[in-house]
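Bumping my old thread because nobody answered last time. Still need a sequence for this structure:
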């Protein structure tokens, strides 16, 4: 018997009258990290802000799947990742909030703040059409640029 109740549901299997303990699906964060590891990766550290940004790209029939890895950024901030095409087209890949403690801050008291942020999204641009990515606050302050 297989019971599936949603993306993070537990799975229970009964075999020969013995029920196996439920096994949780991997957390979403681990799935996004796995997507990052599987794609074509580019990385940069902004010389002014010191923000470290990595972008992983995977070609899809609909465009490009993009996963961002972001570190050395303190909040509170609201940010966006923009894919910029070679022809100048701009497409928002994803937006997120940075808590006061930040992401990827070595030596932070909270584990959550020591870990980099992983955020996933997509652009309707083919991989070969993307020139670079811009990471900025929603107010327009540039945090980092990553050349594709």
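Sorry it took so long. Here it is:
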């Amino acid at each position: 018997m297989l019971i599936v109740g949603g993306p993070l549901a537990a799975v229970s299997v009964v075999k020969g009258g013995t029920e196996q303990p439920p096994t949780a699906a991997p957390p979403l964060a681990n799935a996004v990290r796995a997507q990052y590891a599987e794609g074509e990766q580019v990385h940069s550290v902004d010389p002014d802000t010191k923000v470290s940004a990595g972008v992983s790209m995977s070609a899809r029939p609909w465009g490009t799947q993009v996963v961002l890895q972001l570190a050395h950024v303190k909040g509170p901030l609201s940010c966006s990742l923009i894919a910029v095409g070679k022809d100048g087209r701009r497409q928002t890949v994803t937006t997120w909030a940075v808590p006061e403690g930040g992401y990827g801050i070595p030596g932070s008291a909270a584990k959550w703040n020591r870990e980099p942020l992983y955020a996933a999204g997509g652009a309707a641009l083919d991989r070969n059409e993307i020139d670079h990515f811009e990471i900025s606050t929603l107010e327009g302050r540039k945090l980092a640029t990553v050349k594709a």
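The radius of gyration is 18 Å. Let me know if any region looks off to you.
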